[in-house]
Amino acid sequence: MFQSQTQEPPDYPSFVESVDEYQFVERLLPPTGIPKPPKHEHYPTPSGWQPPRDPPPNLPYFVRRSRMHNIPVYKDITHGNRQMTVIRKVEGDIWALQKDVEDFLSPLLGKTPVTQINEVTGTLRVKGYFDQQLKAWLLEKGF
Protein backbone atom coordinates (compact mmCIF):
# COMPACT_ATOMS: atom_id res chain seq x y z
CA MET A 1 0.00 0.00 0.00
CA PHE A 2 2.55 2.56 1.05
CA GLN A 3 5.60 3.06 -1.08
CA SER A 4 8.90 3.07 0.62
CA GLN A 5 10.69 6.40 0.70
CA THR A 6 13.98 4.73 -0.07
CA GLN A 7 12.73 3.75 -3.48
CA GLU A 8 14.83 5.09 -6.38
CA PRO A 9 13.38 7.84 -8.61
CA PRO A 10 11.84 6.63 -11.83
CA ASP A 11 14.03 6.43 -14.91
CA TYR A 12 13.44 9.38 -17.20
CA PRO A 13 14.33 9.27 -20.88
CA SER A 14 17.71 10.76 -21.68
CA PHE A 15 18.16 13.93 -23.69
CA VAL A 16 20.80 15.29 -26.01
CA GLU A 17 21.99 18.90 -25.73
CA SER A 18 22.44 20.40 -29.18
CA VAL A 19 24.00 23.84 -29.57
CA ASP A 20 23.71 23.82 -33.36
CA GLU A 21 20.04 24.83 -33.35
CA TYR A 22 20.52 27.64 -30.80
CA GLN A 23 21.04 30.09 -33.66
CA PHE A 24 17.30 29.82 -34.34
CA VAL A 25 16.53 30.68 -30.71
CA GLU A 26 18.86 33.70 -30.81
CA ARG A 27 16.88 35.13 -33.72
CA LEU A 28 13.76 35.19 -31.52
CA LEU A 29 15.39 36.93 -28.55
CA PRO A 30 15.11 40.72 -28.51
CA PRO A 31 18.39 42.62 -28.87
CA THR A 32 20.03 43.73 -25.64
CA GLY A 33 20.80 47.21 -26.98
CA ILE A 34 20.18 49.43 -29.95
CA PRO A 35 22.77 48.78 -32.64
CA LYS A 36 25.08 51.51 -33.87
CA PRO A 37 23.85 53.08 -37.10
CA PRO A 38 25.54 51.73 -40.23
CA LYS A 39 28.00 53.82 -42.24
CA HIS A 40 26.52 55.36 -45.38
CA GLU A 41 28.21 56.60 -48.53
CA HIS A 42 26.75 60.09 -48.30
CA TYR A 43 24.78 62.14 -45.79
CA PRO A 44 22.03 63.06 -45.21
CA THR A 45 20.50 59.63 -45.82
CA PRO A 46 17.23 59.37 -47.80
CA SER A 47 15.36 59.59 -44.49
CA GLY A 48 17.16 62.86 -43.65
CA TRP A 49 19.29 61.40 -40.83
CA GLN A 50 22.82 62.68 -40.25
CA PRO A 51 25.37 61.46 -37.72
CA PRO A 52 26.73 63.88 -35.14
CA ARG A 53 29.94 65.65 -36.08
CA ASP A 54 33.15 64.04 -34.87
CA PRO A 55 34.68 65.64 -32.81
CA PRO A 56 31.69 67.25 -31.09
CA PRO A 57 31.37 71.04 -31.27
CA ASN A 58 33.40 73.06 -28.80
CA LEU A 59 30.51 74.76 -27.00
CA PRO A 60 29.71 75.13 -23.28
CA TYR A 61 26.68 72.83 -23.75
CA PHE A 62 26.03 69.50 -25.45
CA VAL A 63 22.77 68.07 -26.80
CA ARG A 64 22.97 64.28 -26.60
CA ARG A 65 21.14 62.18 -29.20
CA SER A 66 18.17 60.01 -28.25
CA ARG A 67 18.52 56.26 -27.96
CA MET A 68 17.45 55.91 -31.59
CA HIS A 69 20.24 58.33 -32.63
CA ASN A 70 17.88 61.22 -33.39
CA ILE A 71 18.07 64.85 -32.26
CA PRO A 72 15.86 65.22 -29.14
CA VAL A 73 13.64 68.12 -30.27
CA TYR A 74 9.91 67.50 -29.90
CA LYS A 75 6.56 69.25 -30.27
CA ASP A 76 4.44 69.42 -27.13
CA ILE A 77 0.88 70.62 -26.69
CA THR A 78 -0.76 71.17 -23.32
CA HIS A 79 -4.12 72.55 -22.20
CA GLY A 80 -5.49 71.96 -25.70
CA ASN A 81 -3.79 74.93 -27.35
CA ARG A 82 -0.44 75.72 -25.68
CA GLN A 83 2.10 74.84 -28.37
CA MET A 84 5.66 74.28 -27.18
CA THR A 85 8.91 72.96 -28.62
CA VAL A 86 11.04 70.93 -26.21
CA ILE A 87 14.80 70.37 -26.48
CA ARG A 88 15.77 67.47 -24.22
CA LYS A 89 19.06 65.85 -23.15
CA VAL A 90 20.95 69.14 -22.71
CA GLU A 91 24.20 68.76 -20.79
CA GLY A 92 26.48 71.53 -19.61
CA ASP A 93 25.57 75.23 -19.62
CA ILE A 94 21.88 75.19 -20.52
CA TRP A 95 21.73 78.99 -20.10
CA ALA A 96 24.21 79.41 -22.99
CA LEU A 97 21.95 77.20 -25.13
CA GLN A 98 18.97 79.36 -24.21
CA LYS A 99 20.82 82.50 -25.31
CA ASP A 100 21.88 80.87 -28.61
CA VAL A 101 18.32 79.62 -29.27
CA GLU A 102 16.93 83.10 -28.58
CA ASP A 103 19.53 84.65 -30.91
CA PHE A 104 18.58 82.11 -33.61
CA LEU A 105 14.79 82.46 -33.29
CA SER A 106 14.56 86.24 -32.74
CA PRO A 107 14.97 87.12 -36.46
CA LEU A 108 12.37 84.48 -37.39
CA LEU A 109 9.81 85.78 -34.88
CA GLY A 110 10.65 89.45 -34.90
CA LYS A 111 10.78 89.34 -31.09
CA THR A 112 12.53 87.36 -28.37
CA PRO A 113 10.89 83.92 -27.95
CA VAL A 114 9.45 82.90 -24.60
CA THR A 115 11.60 80.12 -23.10
CA GLN A 116 11.55 77.98 -19.98
CA ILE A 117 14.51 76.04 -18.56
CA ASN A 118 14.55 73.02 -16.27
CA GLU A 119 18.15 72.52 -15.16
CA VAL A 120 17.44 69.30 -13.28
CA THR A 121 15.97 67.44 -16.27
CA GLY A 122 18.13 69.25 -18.84
CA THR A 123 15.22 70.51 -20.94
CA LEU A 124 14.59 73.80 -22.69
CA ARG A 125 11.03 74.69 -23.72
CA VAL A 126 10.25 77.33 -26.34
CA LYS A 127 6.76 78.74 -26.86
CA GLY A 128 5.57 77.85 -30.38
CA TYR A 129 6.37 75.11 -32.88
CA PHE A 130 9.98 75.45 -34.03
CA ASP A 131 10.98 71.78 -34.09
CA GLN A 132 12.08 71.66 -37.73
CA GLN A 133 14.07 74.90 -37.51
CA LEU A 134 15.76 73.88 -34.24
CA LYS A 135 16.61 70.39 -35.53
CA ALA A 136 18.23 71.89 -38.63
CA TRP A 137 20.06 74.45 -36.49
CA LEU A 138 21.39 71.79 -34.09
CA LEU A 139 22.51 69.64 -37.05
CA GLU A 140 24.31 72.64 -38.50
CA LYS A 141 26.04 73.17 -35.13
CA GLY A 142 27.27 69.57 -35.19
CA PHE A 143 25.02 67.76 -32.73
TrEMBL record:
Q: Where in the cell is it found?
A: Mitochondrion
Keywords from the UniProt entry: Mitochondrion, Ribonucleoprotein, Ribosomal protein
Database matches in Pfam families: Img2
Q: Which InterPro entries match?
A: Ribosomal_mL49
Offer an example of a GO molecular function term for this protein.
structural constituent of ribosome
The principal localisation class reads mitochondrion
Which biological process terms from the Gene Ontology are attached to this UniProt entry? Answer: translation
Q: Where is this region: Disordered?
A: 29-58
Question: Which Gene Ontology cellular-component terms appear in the entry?
Answer: mitochondrial large ribosomal subunit
In terms of superkingdom, the source organism counts as Eukaryota
Q: Which family does it belong to?
A: Belongs to the mitochondrion-specific ribosomal protein mL49 family.
| Name of the protein this chain belongs to | Large ribosomal subunit protein mL49
Organism of provenance: Odobenus rosmarus divergens
Gene transcribed to yield this protein: MRPL49
